[in-house]
Design brief:
The complex is a heterodimer.
Chain A lengths: L2 E3 L4 E5 L4 E3 L2 E3 L5 E7 L6 E6 L5 E3 L5 E5 L4 E6 L8 E8 L7 E3 L3 E6 L1
Parallel strand pairs in A: 2-12
Antiparallel strand pairs in A: 1-4, 3-9, 5-6, 5-10, 7-8, 8-9, 10-11, 10-12
Chain B lengths: L3 E4 L2 E4 L5 E7 L4 E9 L5 E8 L5 E2 L8 E7 L2 E6 L8 E9 L7 E2 L3 E5 L1
Parallel strand pairs in B: 2-11
Antiparallel strand pairs in B: 1-3, 3-8, 4-5, 4-9, 5-6, 7-8, 9-10, 9-11
Classes of the chains: A mainly beta, B mainly beta.
Chain lengths: ~110, ~120
């Protein structure tokens, strides 16, 4: 069955610290992977996506993610977190470049301490 | 570009009434739109896939008579929650796929529905 697992429900980091949010997927075909961020009461903003090619993907707001096929993972990283990064982060997997429906993980809520 | 707009952003309705939510692609044509539902502090679950000019495809467990979807044009899909009840209160988000480009679907800002 297709699924996305985000093991960490809630993460708290200090401002300026590095961040890594974990994402593991189970998908029968070639996965197309996404990270979205959602602020309270808001829609989703795409941070980055992986379709093919270089397994290290750069996104907006200083985020990057690395696709590791052997580990079925697509972890999101940021070297230095800002207070404005506090939000909910969703990993998602889809087929055919996300043209079709997406399967979302449960989300990780990030809190940033000053 | 690639803006998807939902209307309204929030709505409060009484039990037993129906509510219509609109999803519009503002600067592109979308043959396919997706409707998701998000309960508080939970993830997004796909409800249905809306295809222009044809019937929507509903996910297992989603009542098609309860959640009516109409995709009458290439820029508009509507979700109508019929005979709403408090358990229908949720955050509804749509996404739309550009028919001209091989890119992912773009999300609207969501609609908060509260049924009292």
């Amino acid at each position: 069955a297709q699924s996305v697992t985000q093991p960490d429900i809630h993460i708290t980091v200090s401002e300026g610290a590095s961040l890594e949010l974990r994402c593991n997927y189970s998908y029968g075909a070639t996965p197309y992977l996404f990270w979205y961020v959602q602020s309270p009461g808001q829609g989703l903003q795409l941070l980055l996506k992986y379709f093919s090619g270089d397994t290290l993907v750069q996104g907006i707001k200083g985020f990057e993610a690395e696709f590791k096929r052997s580990q079925s993972s697509f972890n999101l990283r940021k070297p230095s977190v800002h207070w404005s990064d506090a939000a909910e982060y969703f990993c998602a997997v889809g087929a055919y470049g996300g043209y079709n429906k997406l399967i979302f993980g449960a989300g990780t809520r990030l809190a940033v301490h000053p | 570009g690639a803006v998807v707009s939902q209307h309204p952003s929030w709505v409060i309705c009484k039990s037993g009434t129906s509510v219509k939510i609109e999803c519009r692609s503002l600067d592109f044509q979308a043959t396919t739109m997706f409707w998701y539902r998000q309960f508080p502090k939970q993830s997004l679950m796909l409800m249905a896939t809306s295809n222009e000019g044809s019937k929507a495809t509903y996910e297992q467990g989603v009542e098609k008579d309860k959640f009516l979807i109409n995709h009458a044009s290439l820029t508009l899909s509507t979700l109508t929650v019929t005979s709403a009840h408090p358990e229908d209160s949720s955050f509804y988000i749509c996404s739309a796929r550009n028919r001209e480009e091989n890119t992912e679907a773009f999300f609207g800002q969501g609609t908060r529905l509260t049924v009292v």
